Amino acid sequence: MVAGWFAGDGDGFRLLGTRCAVCASVFFPREDVHCRNPDCAGGELLEVPLSRRGRVWSYTDSRYRPPSPYVTDPELPWEPYTLIAVELEAERIVVLGQAAPGVTVAGLTVGMEVEVVPGVLSEDAETVWTTWHWRPTGVRA
């Protein structure tokens, strides 16, 4: 888990961003140093929970192991996954994330409503790396 990127669990799970107190721009991943809006002189950055639901802006799948220089363990099997770019209307941003297990490009359409849910990126005998996933609304794991 990346500290400060999300909080809660179940229906209380939320991505955490920051909002500039001067221009109201919202950032995810969070920004803790300065406002990234080039038209803003900057101000205090306040942590804000992001909308739990958004609309599919774009999507794709990853069916192959990344080529060099990206490092992957060739001893481990490659697991295809689906990526979804989700527009959060209230925040006026697009957030990228993996689709929930079982969600494929065949089940997605641009404009479809999705919700953020907790997920597992990877795990071994000692550690579970948590993340967020996007899941079409009305679909339960």
How would you characterize this protein structure?
By secondary structure, the protein is mostly beta strands. It has one domain. The protein contains no helices and nine strands. The protein has strands at residues 6-7, 14-20, 26-27, 45-49, 53-62, 81-88, 93-99, 113-123, 128-136. The strands form two sheets. A five-stranded mixed barrel has the order 5-6-7-9-8. β8 and β9 (128-136) form a beta hairpin. It is globular. The mean pLDDT is 90.
Detail the topology: elements first, then pairings:
Blueprint: E1 6-7, E2 14-20, E3 26-27, E4 45-49, E5 53-62, E6 81-88, E7 93-99, E8 113-123, E9 128-136
Parallel strand pairs: 7-9
Antiparallel strand pairs: 1-2, 2-3, 2-4, 5-6, 5-8, 6-7, 8-9
Number of helices: 0
Classify the secondary structure makeup into a structural class: mainly beta
- Termini gap: 21 Å
Order of helices and strands: EEEEEEEEE
Using DSSP, what is the number of strands?
A: 9
Number of domains: 1
Helix content bin: under 10%
Q: In angstroms, what is the radius of gyration?
A: 17 Å
Low-confidence stretches: none
Strands in their spatial order, largest beta sheet: 5-6-7-9-8
List keywords for this structure.
single chain; 141 residues; mainly beta
Structure summary:
By secondary structure, the chain is mainly beta. The chain has one domain (about 5-135). It has strands at about 5, 15-20, 25, 45-50, 55-60, 80-90, 95-100, 115-125, 130-135.
